[in-house]
Amino acid sequence: MPMRTLLAAAALGALAACSAPPPDAYVTRSAAATAGEPAGTDARNEPCQVQPGRAAPADRQVLRTREVYCGGWTQPAARVVELAGAAGPADLDAIAASGLWRSWLDQRVACAAPTRTTIAGGGEARLLACTRRAGGWPHVAIVTAGPSGPVVADGVATSLPVIERLATGRSAGTAAASRSAALELAVARLSADAFSATDVGRYEQLMALGRDLNQTENFAAAEDAYRAALAVQERVLGRDNPNTVTAMLHLAVNLSNQRRLADAGALLDRATPLAPRAADPATPARLLHYRALHALNSGDPRTAIALLEQAEARYAALAPSTRRERRDGETSELLADPVEQSAILGLAEAKRNRAVALTRAGRAAEAPALVAEARAVLRNAGLEPNMMVGRAMRTEAGADIRLGRTEAAAQLMERAAGRFAIAAPGERPEAVTLFLAGQQRMRGGRRAEALTAFRAGAAILRARQIGLPVGLVVPYLDALDQEAAATPGLAPALRAEMFGAAQLAQRSSTARYVQQASARLGVSEGNQAVQGAVRGLQDADRELRELFAERDSSSGQNAALDDRIAAAQARRADAEGQVASAAPGYRQLLLASVDADSVARALGRGEALLTMLLGPREGFVMAVRDGRVDARRVPVGEEAVAALVSRIRRSSEIGAGGVPRFDTDAAQELHRLLVAPLAGTLDGAETLVVAPDGPLLALPFGMLLAGPASPDQLVGAPWLIRRHAIVHVPSPQTLVTLRAAGTGSTAPNPYIGFGDFTPPSGAQFARAFPADRCGTDARLATGLGRLPGTRAEVLASRQLLGAAADRAILGADFTIANLRRQRLDQYRVVHLATHALLPGELSCLPEPSIVASPPGGAPSADTAFLKASEVLDLKMDADLVILSACNTGGPGGEGGGEALSGLARAFFYAGARGLMVTHWAVDDAAAALTVADTLRRQQGGATSAAALRGAQMLILEEAGRNLPAAFAHPYYWAPFVLIGDGRRAGAATAAAPAPARL
């Protein structure tokens, strides 16, 4: 990732983590929330308990404070404070209207004027109808006369019955002498909102989780947390409630940070008319701030600067204490007012973000002063956590880079990494900053120091099984390549290190899918052991984040806290082991790297692995064979390779004018760049395992040309498939994991197939993809037409493999529900002859999905999609899953290769060894021939890779003989690829195949 992109990521993460007060700014956390006395039920009949609590500010002596916990929520739903002194009507009016308690209340909630009323038993009271500034939840406050003097209380609106019982001294089981007029005033609001303390607790837990994940720069996971929090609010408060804006803005910022700019922009537009009416007065400033961050991600720093200046002014108006400089020696306390605290944090971040924008706009010299201002704002308020200091240093280093101050930038990055190591040791921010430091050391010609930084960052990434954007990892490979050239004796070890380093890079959509799939396992209704183990791992991660936050906010050394962190890290390691034991396939859902030795041990005789990494300006290709690693520099970057892939794809897919003229020059150029440099290592390998990168995921490698060929004479062209059987894998780790699963299926039955689906109707698609939110999705989905040729394809495959007649499930019978009812682990081949929808960016169907017929009478098309994360719930023991209607370059196909990679991982987890898929819409006759001949050869004992190659070679050899010469064009023979291992040599064999017939 270029420096400018990384700085935006840091800005977004810091703001989302800090721009809103944490839940305990509104209520007090308590680890012993469930250890109190019974207090009856609230207005939603949720059981409540009460325990001693922390005193609230008051003008009178506080006799007792109690906190109420309802519905299992681990934070107080209400706080009841008993005061000393007179409690006449004038006293109640005064307390409700002004004073310390009312000021403390107003900091946290927005209240209407007090209403005179009575509570149960007839006691006089003053009721305040309020709204919580955080989340917009209905809140109540009450002032009444208790047995010993005035009682002041506030809480979630549903807690009012419990507040009244505690205020009057009644026990939980005692009936009131008369009805509560106060409760009657609140009934209409309570009924309309239909929420409980559990809803509030769930919302705040999700918001806190989103902040934690954002702080560690896990934006895909933070997106899911904020999306879930917004869903809770919208269900209770309504979609257009202005208090949903906070979750909406956090969600938008995380989408923008993942470069899902259209989705982020739509959310920001939706938030604009709502923000001025939100209960939190900082919301309009935050909207300006987040629009600025979105402008930065969109490459418009000038717009960002203007928006940030407006945001700063809004924040400053809410944080008057920032106008006063702290005097020497003066001790600053944390601000008690959460609105003011939020504004100060926002103001500091807005200034830092403006420094980023100025740097990008070519005004880097102005940035350091703004960073210093941002830190001064925090320091004067007593708010300068290590995470924010680290980000400030990283921002200042970005300005130094633009100004050519390489040494200063490197030193600042190293200091920032040290801050991150305190705030969140062993997490992504520390690793990112170490890689940035290494990059600057390389630019300064200090390769040894660069390698030290890169290796320290790489150790974190491997330990946490996370990755970095490609642009950050390529300089590490560059340093290793230069070191290998300088020290030939160490070259073999350094090239092996290059192989491992390349796997530390992640593409964003792959990382997102893996995170989604892992999260789904934690809530899956499938294997309970897996569910429990994954949840245990998630809990261990959460515990570590909380401990890191505690250490970041503490001052000085804390040996006891360090011991707790060490113990929590040990628990996390144990939890990882439990997940691996409960679900061996879980490794398919990790972005872990494997070393070259592990790959070499997994490869068989006659096999070689080819992998690559494409950076912005250059890349590297690497090969493993016979225990050796070879590596070569690619002199062009991702954009140039993507252009070649696009040329090849355009010349391979049928269009309005028929089959196009094939671009032989592009196919030969890609071979020259990626394969030819490693010819000495790859020549003679029977099977070539390819782990592509980026745009290459959408291309069958067998169609690369190893030499010149004429587009007018493709018969006999030197295709790479003529030299090797080719296996594609999402990553080298995938190959190692699949090889550990054995050589082939032990399922008793040969085949089950599904095809000729009935598309959902236009009305069903419209309900699944509402036009106001999912217009793009709707247009994509409604273009999914029938595939009548798949009926013959499935029937022919069933007959070839000798499966029973009812093992071909076709037409309206091909539903997702019917698919799930089958015992798929009893079949060696599972054939899904239907669309596999592989979107690049969809807001309403964000996962790759398989399309089936909707069940009879279904109101919506939702039930016709089997999402990749739902594939995890299937149980398989298949050599092959055949998906014969994929299109990685079709509508919405940007990133389609990555989506296909995610779908493959899901099937591998479910128990498949290989996927045979198409990369574009294929000719019916060629598809039927390829599938049938591949299955025939595999049934006869060939490996899946050799069987597919044999079928493709049959078409090539027969083109111009028993087939038209046009069949030598890749449109006909090349779209099918094998992803994963499939059936391998050594598996039990059936009878030898009959000779091929055309």
TrEMBL record:
The keyword Nuclease does not apply. The lineage of its organism: Bacteria, Pseudomonadati, Pseudomonadota, Alphaproteobacteria, Acetobacterales. It comes from the Bacteria. Residues 1-25 form the signal peptide. Keywords: Signal. It comes from Roseomonas nitratireducens. InterPro entries: CHAT_dom, TPR-like_helical_dom_sf. This is CHAT domain-containing protein. Residues 665-981 form the CHAT domain. Residues 29-57 are annotated as: Disordered. PROSITE patterns: PROKAR_LIPOPROTEIN (PS51257). The keyword Signal applies.
